[in-house]
Amino acid sequence: MPRRLRHPRWWALLVLGLWLGYALAMLTRLPTWAFPLVTGAWLLLALWRRWGAPANPRPATRVWPWSLFPLSLWGFYVYLAASFGEVDLGAVFFHLQAGISEHGGSGRILSALLHTLGMLLLLAAFTWLVRVDRRWRTTERLLAVMLLAANPMLYGLGQRGAAIVTDDGAWLDRQYVEPVILDAPRSPPNLVLLYLESLERTYADPERFGDAYAPLKALGERALVVEGVRQLDNTGWTMAGMIASQCGTPLMPAGLLHDSQFEPLGRVVPGIDCLGDLLAERGYALSYLGGASTRFAGKGVFYRDHGFARVMGREELEPRLADPDYVNSWGLFDDTLYDLTVEEIRRLERQGEPWGLVNLNLAAHAPNGYPARACRDRQGEFDGADILYSVECSTWLARRLVERLEAEGLLENTLVVVASDHLTMRVSAWEQLVAGQRENTLMLLGEGVEPRRLRVEASTMDVLPTVLEAMGFVIDWHRAGLGVSLLSDQPTLIEEHGLETLNARLREETALQERLWEGLAPSQRTPPPDAVIAPRG
């Protein structure tokens, strides 16, 4: 190795360049192959500017750069972006408060350790450069300020703090319409709500993703398929996605409204009525089944608190497996989960009263998915990384479950809703996913649902009133929560105000947060003037 390359200068500059390229690739839509180009450009610039080897060198000074803390914050943010794609601070705050025990993301531990090691190398390299190069030493404090000011995490915290003193922190709360069922059909239908983890409708594009979504496309030929279901802030993780679609509102973390800041939440959004509350009041027997633990992120607390009599996750279902070793790091594989789902629907059907079942699978969970044994027998060997393999597995098993229930006569007078809980986080097909507008899966099958395609600018908050009306219930103004029934001619909030406006309002909102967690805001039986909306089209 040439003596020049053995000098610590080039090792330090290489570490800084690698981090710069990696950060840009994770935080922007820069293609992954451009990563080394950024590093190479950085090294050429360093060679030209003689960084670390100034023309008039001075003795090294033992100082500690002011930028170490800002760089550490950026390192943490880059880790979140590398792990999840879109960084949602609301998800971070909520999971810290709701509890992250029994999570299945053990595979991310190695990634976290590698990021930590890389971060230590970055801090060491930057410290060396500041100590030996006076030019960096004189400008480094300004760099520290710039790094702090530009960090999205601190920016997000600042916006939430500013919401406390904003002129109007109740705009969204004024749009909120309390879910009320005014009338019901003589023979109310049953409900099967299948959440397909991270299985966004964006995968339906065959030019980018081949036949991965084809099984759901085939199922959709006899369903109402909704296109254009966008993702609002604070709805982009599993609990938030389920609350958005069942409660008609984003999941704003409890924050300081929670009495015991260092204890897990004892209740989840207790201030509002959700789908389970409405159906339980009408005599429905409700069950939840999911492959993962219900202890994670307050999932079990939410369902038990909102009308579900039976809430079953990994702890309850794993002892019922024929093969107790056939599980993954999160929990049950989808084929065995769906077998147990069929058993539960048979039990509910025997009771002779209206019932509802909510199910959450795992097959397409980021970053690589958990394809079931049945899929491996059908699709061949899984390379452990290709998310499209897992997407196809998820769609095929979901279609097979619906067809199996139909064949057994278990879907008579039953509405089936197939939906993604949220857009996927960073996966192997990430660059193709973010190349265009993304949208969630939503399709409805039932005796009274006309098969067709409906293109509309909507959000997952619109699922609640849409499901209620598809079941034959009459609701106030075709609205529930912040959602609008897509079966009506009323425009959605996104159509009226735009996604960016709603997200901006969400960052300023305080009254809706209080409603969710404390129920402090008064109920609104009649919408205020600025909440009245004109018919669509």
From TrEMBL:
Keywords assigned by UniProt, alphabetized: Cell membrane, Membrane, Transmembrane, Transmembrane helix
A Pfam family (short name) is Sulfatase
Please list every transmembrane segment annotated in the UniProt record, as residue ranges. Answer: 33-51, 63-82, 109-130, 142-158
Q: Which SUPFAM superfamilies match?
A: Alkaline phosphatase-like
Name the membrane topology term.
Answer: Multi-pass membrane protein
InterPro entries annotated for this entry? Answer: Alkaline_phosphatase_core_sf (IPR017850), OpgB/LTA_synthase_biosynth (IPR050448), Sulfatase_N (IPR000917)
> Where found, per UniProt?
Cell membrane
What Gene3D superfamilies does the database record attribute to this sequence? Alkaline Phosphatase, subunit A
The segment(s) forming the Sulfatase N-terminal domain are: 189-472
Kindly give the CDD domains that the UniProt entry links to this protein. LTA_synthase (cd16015)
The main location is membrane
Query: Which PANTHER family has this protein been placed in?
Result: LIPOTEICHOIC ACID SYNTHASE, PHOSPHOGLYCEROL TRANSFERASE I
Q: What is this protein called?
A: Sulfatase-like hydrolase/transferase
